[in-house]
Design a protein that fits this description.
This is Xanthine-guanine phosphoribosyltransferase. One of its GO terms (molecular function) is magnesium ion binding. Pathway: Purine metabolism; GMP biosynthesis via salvage pathway; GMP from guanine: step 1/1; Purine metabolism; XMP biosynthesis via salvage pathway; XMP from xanthine: step 1/1. It catalyses: GMP + diphosphate = guanine + 5-phospho-alpha-D-ribose 1-diphosphate; XMP + diphosphate = xanthine + 5-phospho-alpha-D-ribose 1-diphosphate; IMP + diphosphate = hypoxanthine + 5-phospho-alpha-D-ribose 1-diphosphate. Helix 4 links the parallel strand 5 and strand 6. The longest helix is centred in the first third of the chain and has 16 residues. It is globular, with a radius of gyration of 16 Å. It is α/β, with parallel strands linked by helices and 166 residues long. The strands form 2 sheets. A 6-stranded mixed beta sheet has the order 4-3-2-5-6-7, with helices on both faces. A two-stranded parallel sheet has the order 1-8. The protein starts with 6 loop residues before the first strand and ends in a 17-residue tail after the last strand.
C-alpha cells in the first residue's frame, strides 16, 4: 500500500487520543467556540475528543471525499455541506466556528471548507507542507512524502524487522 518513496507513520489509538487532546489544549486558549464542524470521515474521532475537552455540544459535519481507493487523491466530491443554521451562528462566514480534521495534506479539502466558512478556525491534528498554510492550529507536522496510517485504517499483524528489508 505504501509507495517506496513514502515514509510510513503509524498512529495508534493512544497516540491519536494524546495528539487530539494536545490540539484541544491549544484551542482552549484561542477562543470560546460556538460549535465544531467536523470534516468527515477523518475528523470524526478528533472532533469528538476536542468537543469533550472544550465542552462543545453543537457538532455538525461537512462531508467531502477525495481518497476513493485509500491510496491516491482523486476529484473532490461534496457529499454534505454545513447546516445553514449553523453557519448563521458565525454571522454567515463561520466566525466562532471550529473546523476539525485529522490531517491537511495537499490542502484541497481545506480550501473547500475555507471557501464555505472563511472566518472559521481550521484545526488539524497533523499537517503536511502543501496544506499547512490553510490551517490555523495543528499539533504535528509531517513531511509531504509521509503516509499516515490512522488506527481506524489498520489492524494488528506481524511486522518483520527493518533489517529484513521489508
Amino acid at each position: 500500500m505504501t509507495a517506496p518513496q513514502e515514509k510510513a507513520f503509524p498512529v495508534s489509538w493512544d497516540q491519536l487520543h494524546r495528539d487530539a487532546r494536545a490540539l484541544a489544549w491549544r484551542l482552549a486558549g484561542i477562543n470560546r467556540w460556538d460549535a465544531i464542524v467536523c470534516v468527515t470521515r477523518g475528523g470524526l474521532v478528533p472532533s469528538a475528543i476536542v468537543a469533550r475537552e472544550l465542552g462543545i455540544r453543537l457538532i455538525d459535519t461537512v462531508c467531502i471525499t477525495s481518497y476513493h481507493d485509500y491510496q491516491t487523491q482523486g476529484e473532490l466530491e461534496l457529499l454534505k455541506s454545513v447546516t445553514p443554521s449553523l453557519v448563521e451562528l458565525g454571522k454567515g462566514r463561520g466566525e466562532r466556528l471550529l473546523v476539525v480534521d485529522d490531517l491537511v495534506d495537499t490542502g484541497r479539502t481545506a480550501r473547500v471548507v475555507k471557501d464555505m466558512l472563511p472566518e472559521a478556525h481550521l484545526a488539524t491534528v497533523y499537517a503536511k507542507p502543501q496544506g499547512i498554510e490553510l490551517v490555523d492550529t495543528f499539533v504535528t507536522e509531517v513531511s509531504q512524502d509521509t503516509w499516515i496510517y490512522f488506527p481506524w485504517d489498520t489492524s494488528l499483524q506481524f511486522a518483520p524487522p527493518i533489517r529484513d528489508g521489508v
